């Protein structure tokens, strides 16, 4: 076993060096000046996991014994441009052609445990630098240029066992930097690592300290978690340790107590299943055909995760033992927007996810296939560019174990998509507009630009959605009939 692991390690290191010739060259330059240089952390871990397929996969994260001034001089001689990534933290960046590197002086930081900010102290030992890192699987290095493997915390052993441990006690590690607890959940999702019981215990005990981490940094970790191969693993860890109560409280709130007759679903479990099903409906990465949703898609995954967050606030127990969640999609859309804004998501993502949450129940009015063409047009128009995601979200929202019911819902949505395609081909639904534009409206009514034109435009759009294409002449007649009933026309 040990020989096999060593052989795999050597092959991984050889592949990493082959994919990182610039790093090897820099290793020679630093060594010539009497300094150490090593590839550290993520690229070493990913090489050992077999996740590297070429130079583009290698994040050139380097550590050195050189002080920042000496590092900057060496990088200036090597590259086209250099910059301070964080001069106070000993990190210098450089670029040569398309290759970007970041080199950080060895550190032996002490943390202010009230603010989470390190009091930076530079070190002289690669091993000491690695021991201060977040997890043992990230505390491995490859010295340059000779390729010697350095693993003071047995990260290779933990990686072989798919286990996530901290180099020091998890209590001390998380006290130094509470964001590491979020990273643990992220690595459960992205790398499929099992978080060690002692790490889980420390996360549970210190969950509240994540509040001192900025919303922006929490958001970054949450995004990476959701874009991983198994988001459920990370989300369950966040909920189980209590971290979610502080970063995404709407998720544990879905753990509604099931009534004694089990007449409604566990909304939390339903949500995680919907997320998994939505991921399964994503297209392969890079897909670019019409209507494609290439994975991993953050907007779709966030919408699946948050689509039912309005249920706790709208739950009502009905006479006879039933349970209702009337208008939970509307309430949920508002809650979604508030949470994503609090986490500092960009406005476009926030609006798109909230809109999908608002629309996710719209299909259920079609379940019997009785929608008019007008209703189908409105469905497409309201979804706009989110239609392909809405298709996937709606299909994934069916988690019933009743096969007959599931088949009936799938057939109904097949029918709706077929009708959408037919109307799109006949009417170009993707760009539904009135039959007259603003200039034509002003000419027909003899009015200047202003609010009247906007009202007239919206009226014609409603007609277009109700009746389909009218043609310019019929649209003009309808416009004039509408105008005759407006107070402005009577005043004129």
Automatic annotation (TrEMBL):
Name of protein: CCA tRNA nucleotidyltransferase
MF terms in GO: CCA tRNA nucleotidyltransferase activity; metal ion binding; nucleotide binding; tRNA binding
Gene Ontology terms describing biological process: tRNA processing
Native species: Pseudokineococcus marinus
PROSITE patterns listed in its UniProt record: HD
Entry's EC annotation: 2.7.7.72
HD domain residues: 267-432
Swiss-Prot/TrEMBL keywords: Magnesium, Metal-binding, Nucleotide-binding, Nucleotidyltransferase, Transferase, tRNA processing
CDD domains in UniProt: HDc, NT_ClassII-CCAase
InterPro entries registered for this protein in UniProt: Bact_CCA-adding_enz_type3_sf, HD/PDEase_dom, HD_domain, HDIG_dom, NT_sf, PolA_pol_head_dom, PolyA_RNA-bd, tRNA_adenylyltransferase
Pfam families, sorted: HD, PolyA_pol, PolyA_pol_RNAbd
Keyword Translocase: no
Cofactors required: Mg(2+)
UniProt KW Plastid keyword: no
